[in-house]
Amino acid sequence: MENHNSRYARHYSLKHFGYKGQQKLANAKVLVIGAGGLGCPVLQYLAAAGIGTIGLADDDIVSLSNLQRQVLYNTKDIGKAKATVATLKLQQLNPDITVNSFKMIVNSANALALIADYDVVIDCTDNFAARYLINDACVLLNKPLVFGAVFQYEGQVAVFNIADENSRKTNYRNLFATPPDPLEVADCNEAGVLGVLPGIIGLMQATEAIKLITGIGAGLVNKLMTFSILSYDSYIIDIAADDSVHGYVPKDEDAFKNTDYNWLCGMSSGGIEDLQPLIFLEKINLPDTVVIDVREAHELPKVDFKNLNIPLSALSENISEIGAHNIILFCQSGKRSLKAGQLLLEKFGQTKNISHLKGGIIALHETINEQTR
Amino acid sequence: MAVKIIAFGQIAEITGKEFVVGVNDVTALKSVLNEKFPALAEKKYAIAVNKKMVTDNIALNENDTVALMPPYSGG
User: Is residue A164 one of the residues assigned to a domain?
Assistant: First the structure.
């Protein structure tokens, strides 16, 4: 006996989808990692479509600059945990589904246990450490992974760990075997992103997940699609299934748990103190302290506290200029300052106290704006 | 061989979006690119010849299209 729910009437009447397609969605368990620019549309549309169980994992809080693209949140949600707000909104949107909320960072200690409970994983994160971690976990657990990423006006979408008609499977390491240098690639904070772009790319990820679960259409299995919102050009390539990259994936679950993805992706801050914006503002006034702007000279915004401008690109040759015991570094987003800290740590070891502004000038301004609102 | 190059993302910021290079294989293409655009040498990108990703050196033919695709991480 078919138990029809008028919520899904347009799916029931859809050719090649119908009640059977809806039942497949109802039985599916999908994990969405990251509830930001990509995650918001993915979560909204999968909840609306009636995916029976949705897991969502995110440890971030809503900030003002998120609202330009992260449409699950409104101005009153600033300061609240994304996982909490998103879960509430999804349950209001569709009380017939189960939403499992994980307010945590997905890391190598918890990823396997989390992912094991789901049929499909959707990567909506915003950094390489998370992307390689999720990729490797899905390879080890043999879980389908829907990948999406954006840069300025373009996005990439791919579906990994699904065998094609020739029994070939690929994963992110087939595309890029190892992570790039963190300085090489700017994220949305630094490079900017048109707000609609993650909306479009996220909906493509949601579409791929629905196609995968219901078996309709041709998915991006073993393919990478690059989509431009300026031209609407899509460029789809076949990914080479080169077995030699398997050596880069940890060989088993124990090896995975012992892998430090932050370090692999150059995001480790070992020996360099992270300063939250308000602490930063206190520390810059301490005696025997030098504050160094490692951005290039032309970069904006300028800051109104005393500092020395030594761009990261010129730091090595100017290291002798630094006499103070306390060295506080900053840049736009906190990436280059961390890299600069690593350079100084190699040079000075523990003889100096090296710290940097976590999240950079962007985080500093957001904090100041939120305090004065 | 005149080969058409299409670059994406941050690679395009260095090389421009589309241009033509005269080379016979992928290895020759890489060395021409690195010579012309030194900033490319330390960048990561996947190479696709006529929409098929290649990891080994293969011969290029007249009017082939080669795509240079860097990793994106934003979300």
Answer: yes
Instruction: Kindly report the pTM of this predicted structure.
Output: 0.81
Instruction: Catalogue all structural domains in chain B, each as residue range(s) with its CATH number.
Output: 2-69 (3.10.20.30)
The string of pLDDT tens digits covering residues A26-58 is 999 999 999 999 999 999 999 999 999 999 999
Cross-chain CB nearest to A176 (options B52, B67, B71):
B71
State whether A309 and A234 are in the same domain. no
The domain containing residue A316 runs over which residues?
Answer: 273-372
Is residue B3 within 8 Å of B30, Cβ to Cβ? no
Does B75 contact A175 at a Cβ distance shorter than 8 Å?
Answer: no
Which of B45, B53, B58, B69 to mutate against chain A (most A CBs within 10 Å)?
Answer: B53
Selected for mutation to probe chain B from A68, A151, A171, A220 (highest B CB count within 10 Å) is A151
Burial label, B49 (beta-carbon count in 10 A; 0-12, 13-18, 19+): buried
Helix (H) or strand (E) holding B2: strand B2-7
At B48-59, the pLDDT tens digits run: 999 999 999 999
